[in-house]
Amino acid sequence: MPEFLNLLPPDESLDKLLRNLPDPQPATETIDTASALGRITATDLRAPHALPEFERSTVDGFAVKAADTFGASDSLPAYLTLIGECPMGAIPDLEIQATQTAIIHTGGMLPPGADAVVMLEYTQTLHHEGHGEHKEKRNKNSVDSVLSVVNPEIEILRAVADGENVILIGEDVAKDALIKTKGSLIRPAEVGGLMALGFTQVEVVHPPKIGIISSGDEVVPPEKRPQPGQVRDINSYTLASLVSKSGGEAVIYGIVADSLDAMKSAISRALDECEMVLITAGSSASARDMTAAAIDELGEPGVLVHGVNTRPGKPTILGVCNGKAVIGLPGNPVSALVNGTVFVAPLIRRLLGQSTTELRPSVSAKLTVNLSSSAGREDWISIKLIPSPVGGRGAGGEGKYLAEPIFGKSNLIFTLVAADGLLKIPPDATGLSVGEIVDVILI
Amino acid sequence: MPEFLNLLPPDESLDKLLRNLPDPQPATETIDTASALGRITATDLRAPHALPEFERSTVDGFAVKAADTFGASDSLPAYLTLIGECPMGAIPDLEIQATQTAIIHTGGMLPPGADAVVMLEYTQTLHHEGHGEHKEKRNKNSVDSVLSVVNPEIEILRAVADGENVILIGEDVAKDALIKTKGSLIRPAEVGGLMALGFTQVEVVHPPKIGIISSGDEVVPPEKRPQPGQVRDINSYTLASLVSKSGGEAVIYGIVADSLDAMKSAISRALDECEMVLITAGSSASARDMTAAAIDELGEPGVLVHGVNTRPGKPTILGVCNGKAVIGLPGNPVSALVNGTVFVAPLIRRLLGQSTTELRPSVSAKLTVNLSSSAGREDWISIKLIPSPVGGRGAGGEGKYLAEPIFGKSNLIFTLVAADGLLKIPPDATGLSVGEIVDVILI
Q1: Per the CB < 8 Å rule, is B218 touching A191?
Q2: What are the pLDDT digits (tens) for A65-85?
Q3: A41 has which bridge partners?
Q4: Global model pTM greater than 0.80
Q5: Measuring CA to CA, which residue among A65, A79, A77 is closest to residue A157?
């Protein structure tokens, strides 16, 4: 189209936008760590103490001085005297002297004098009962069998090194170590790590408010029965879902009439109340031009990018009004959702102060057809994943799924409802070949 | 270890468990579609009406009878008479007769008599003003320029086929079509599809309650300062996070003493109140045996799998008590979280009635080292993803990240905190090679 010349691809368009945004100053709040899943840390976190704070056994077995086991083997065991059992959850009230040992359980605290643990299955017990000697030949040594005999001698059948089968003090994390930088996503593992160190509360970033404005004289709220010529508002809700999925808080401003004044007034209110504003413009060229005019009039520097070299989504508008991003998305629901994924998610990450690049969850699959694309343009294809009849090949997962494009006009929301994900054909490619292994980004 | 002979790999273990579970009868609730992101549909959903309900233009241009454009080209345009403009959001009050046309905007309703739309850029306008004729040669035809002239004739420079640039009635979705089966995940696209059809509320599955019990005499609540020999409870919170991420509702029962009676009483209460019970057993063999005994005594058929051929996580126990799954996970936090991911997420999907196989979000990456593994055993390796210095290759994403294993004892929670994901080495592989492209499952 003549109105879109020399368009930048999405990555460069986004970079241009980011260069015009100030560093985010996210608001923070302190919440229970138990409810912090999916939130973003607001501060660097350091370990208040070492983890563990005492030497722990990683196996069920016998606490020993490693030196006492040197050279031990099946044919030439080391003989140690059992002096007791280490309790769980308390300091052992015994001390291992040379040629002594004590029973220890997984997770138990190593007794003073011990520096290693021999696994139960590499030990045997000598029973001195009555006259004569009964030897349990390589039977499984169990805690019960060991404790049921008087003053047993333990046969050690394997040598252990100093520290073997032991977690050392601070081996999980050292005191004062930086455990998470500011801007980290709290996943189940982080919840566990924080709890392990006693952080039952954590300071996190407040979800940034993202204003959402729909426009179009043909658009009515979803609860209304559309008259001929009218359609229900989809974009307010798909974008709100996307905002929520990305860690933001959606503020829906409803449907604004196709007039410059109404548009300016709605955007202006949203800019006051939110950190970023999304507008799904009416679909026509004149509606888009009006959106761009409103952005230009509401703050500096205004529109930075008008039209992006991508399909769907070419008519996307990226602007900044006085430090806040304002994004005009195409009115058609597929374009709005696809370009929301491309542009909105990274901008919310930035507002949250997220420190790492986004790992886009995807699934590897084998493409079922040839796909062509214009050089310079980034294409996003809706994909249905089909379990492969051949089955998976292994760790790579290649061939576990077939990637079957869903063709259809780009404005049909049910092509996305039917899709499992999106396939990106980057600007420098002119297509993809049947049989190629591709990453399908889950939606 | 002698106590674990002939172990099944995780997939077969899970299958054995699933065969012993009755079909789930999930409770349902009706909620606002706007808040339904991430929930699971409880019923099949059919379209109450076609979408769209009227023929819509997909472009800005001129509504025509396609037959009037046949053979039209730059050198031999078709000449049509402009009779007006189609309004947005209403039925056009004009009818296209032969050789007539009307302006139409993207998303507008096709006027009676028209069956196709010619894009604005493939048209020119003849201005009959005063004497003589002024022809705008291939200038962009804009709505304003067209409307500013009196009784203009439109030159059509391209032929269109019947239905071209038009979304037909029911082309997005037909009346009564099955739009989503029961058991479907509601993503942003589904929120949009539901709203498009006027479903402002939707019946979804109630999150199943999953009881979580920790045990171990050495374990104290996270808010307590551990004494020597004690550690804080991590597993209750990592598993609760995992449950919540998987769509369940976690019910934490706290830390239970290492005694059969205490364990039985806690599991029994959780079985009464929840759909599934997770227990992180004390780490020692005797604590695991006690958990198994408790499961066996509390219902039929009791323990089905005691020990799984996986690392970490071998001591995992899978059981069923009177129709409800009871899972004993190893006490060490990495095993508990990894095996929670392997076993708990699929079981919650089942309780939710999810109809499709799980698409595990992952990222393709190039392995930085050789990894060996025992045949028959499934290994899960913690992986740090590192942006590749070479950069991405394109659509497949191969080489965009390097997959660097994090080595460390399997009980260090901070190996998972440092990891981006997990790499599975399947039972039939004996290892993976440096440079191989692998799927790293995001955690």
Answers
A1: no
A2: 999 999 999 999 999 999 999
A3: A204
A4: yes
A5: A77
